[in-house]
Inverse folding.
């Protein structure tokens, strides 16, 4: 099939992953699906895998798994972003199994707990965490098969140990002999196919049950809203076990005939972007903010250069609003530093500063901020090309309904979601399921408001709201967003402190200083009093921008960064607030 025809023939909606991969082979068969680095060094070697080759390896590995009796069972999947992870995911699900993606960064006991809760019969894992998996498997009566993504020798007493490459070879032989047990499997698109344990920022992970129809509905919705086609390539940076990257950075790409490459780690983002020259990347705001900060830092090296840089941003924005797009020409050096092809950044999983989004867009890289939850497969809202408002997360996806429950005088209330993308429920937790799925609506626990154009604005989490004795609601995320603009602060958490003297709740903030920025500004970063006073003076400026009842009364300095999820969200466990205060060496306020 010619490239021209590939462009004309658009992918049609599908109900399951088997339909998805079969359709992609038909539309984009000999096109490159993956580029995989096989050897590092001065002369790196790459493997180029087409859609046809990918499908053949899915069928071969799947046939071998079926021969082992791994059909309609839970299969845990754990490892870094790599081709074998994607292969394992689609092989398991296209064979009627339930795939259980697990965060490789979890502690050994947490990994063991999640695998046990899922009752996985097999584990497909990376050689980098082989010891953790082997130690767990020795104690497990449920796990029967260990399948390593790498070609390495390992043996666990009482377990059947294999490597993916060996199973592919075995599957090829079985297929050649006429074994069709795997390829003939009929997929029930409505049953649980993916079990995702939420990383969570507020407590124990819940098991989210998603069907293939849930996810495929979301794939089609995302495709309608964002500018994808077969010429695009993506660099997978965020962890694939997270449904945001898995759906948008992997499955949507396979659906649209794009090419996928894998980042070797956060520290290699710049190197890999220049190496693979992607046109699309999925990021969380924290990473995009880091990219923005580096660009500004370079521009600030000379005052005249920085003034010119800001002027160009202004001119670029004005011209673009008039339909004249010269952004890439004006910021050629920025594009060259990002591989030269980057045109779209999809940002999600946390709030992002509109100022940063606007700056990046004026440089010629479109930013589409969205909102989603694991329970919604995950995307609920996203900004569209025709109506971008970087203060919002955009309107609801096609086929998805949103509404605000019990809005207050400002229109703020709990965000409710309805659509085919909403989960089946929480795994073996009917009470938790009944608590969030009511009358066809999913109660997100997030607070927001909707404007006249149907665009959603996220205000925070219900559990984080600070309520004063006069009944005023304070949204910590609003204040944290303002504190984020203080260059001397790396990160912060705003929380409520119950003042026993007057019986009211005060607003406090725990901040992690940005010592590098403090030092660059010419201040003594080794003097705790200097650091505290410097930050407090900036906090007082923030206080002038908010009503008195929202003003931050005290700050607490924390030396170490907050514990985060793998999508870089701070884990806000309430019971840790005491620890936040204890890490402080004195208050200012």
């Amino acid at each position: 099939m010619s490239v021209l025809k590939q462009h004309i023939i658009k992918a049609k909606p599908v109900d399951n992953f088997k339909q998805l991969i079969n359709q992609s082979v038909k539309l984009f068969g000999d096109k490159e699906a993956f580029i995989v680095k096989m050897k590092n060094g001065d002369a790196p070697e790459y493997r180029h895998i087409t859609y046809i080759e990918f499908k053949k390896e899915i069928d071969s590995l799947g046939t071998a798994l079926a021969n082992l009796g791994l059909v309609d069972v839970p299969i845990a999947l754990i490892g870094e972003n790599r081709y074998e992870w994607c292969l394992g995911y689609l092989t398991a699900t296209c064979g009627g199994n339930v795939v259980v993606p697990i965060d490789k960064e979890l502690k050994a006991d947490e990994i063991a707990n999640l695998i046990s809760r899922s009752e996985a019969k097999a584990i497909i894992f990376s050689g980098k965490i082989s010891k953790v998996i082997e130690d767990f498997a020795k104690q497990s009566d449920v796990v029967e098969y260990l399948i390593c993504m790498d070609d390495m020798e390992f043996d666990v007493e009482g377990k059947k140990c294999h490597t993916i490459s060996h199973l592919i070879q075995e599957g090829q032989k079985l297929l050649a002999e006429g074994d069709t047990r795997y390829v003939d499997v009929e997929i029930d698109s409505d049953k649980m196919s993916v079990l995702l344990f939420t990383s969570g920022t507020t407590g124990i992970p819940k098991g989210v049950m998603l069907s293939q129809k849930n996810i495929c509905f979301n794939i089609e919705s995302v495709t309608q809203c964002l500018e994808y086609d077969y010429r695009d390539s993506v660099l997978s940076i965020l962890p694939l076990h997270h449904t945001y990257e898995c759906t948008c950075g992997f499955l949507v790409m396979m659906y649209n005939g794009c090419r996928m490459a894998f980042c070797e780690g956060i520290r290699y983002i710049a190197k890999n972007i220049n190496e693979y020259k992607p046109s699309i990347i999925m990021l969380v705001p924290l990473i995009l903010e880091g990219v923005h900060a580096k660009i500004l830092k370079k521009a600030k090296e000379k005052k005249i250069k920085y003034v010119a840089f800001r002027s160009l941003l202004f001119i670029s924005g004005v011209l673009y609003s008039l339909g004249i797009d010269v952004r890439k020409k004006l910021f050629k050096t920025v594009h060259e530093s990002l591989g030269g092809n980057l045109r779209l950044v999809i940002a999600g999983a946390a709030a992002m500063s509109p100022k940063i989004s606007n700056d990046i867009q004026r440089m010629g890289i479109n930013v589409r901020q969205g909102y989603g939850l694991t329970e919604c497969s995950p995307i609920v809202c996203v900004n569209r090309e025709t109506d971008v408002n970087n203060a919002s997360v955009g309107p609801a996806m096609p086929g998805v309904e949103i509404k605000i429950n019990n809005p207050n005088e400002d229109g703020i209330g709990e965000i409710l979601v309805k659509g085919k993308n909403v989960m089946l429920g929480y795994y073996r937790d009917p009470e938790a399921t009944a608590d969030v799925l009511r009358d066809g609506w999913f109660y997100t626990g997030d607070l927001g408001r909707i404007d006249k154009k149907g665009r959603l604005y996220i205000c925070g989490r219900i559990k984080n709201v600070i309520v004063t004795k006069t009944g005023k609601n304070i949204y910590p995320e609003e204040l944290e967003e303002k504190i984020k603009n203080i260059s001397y602060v790396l990160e912060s958490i705003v929380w409520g402190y119950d003042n026993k003297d007057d019986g009211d709740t005060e607003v406090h903030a725990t901040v992690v200083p940005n010592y590098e920025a403090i030092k660059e500004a010419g201040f003594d970063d080794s003097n705790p009093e200097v650091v505290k006073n410097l930050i407090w003076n900036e906090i007082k400026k923030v206080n002038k921008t908010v009503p008195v009842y929202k003003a931050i009364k005290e700050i607490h300095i924390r030396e170490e960064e907050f514990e985060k999820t793998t999508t870089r969200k701070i884990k806000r466990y309430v019971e840790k607030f005491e620890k936040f205060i204890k890490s402080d060496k004195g208050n200012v306020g």
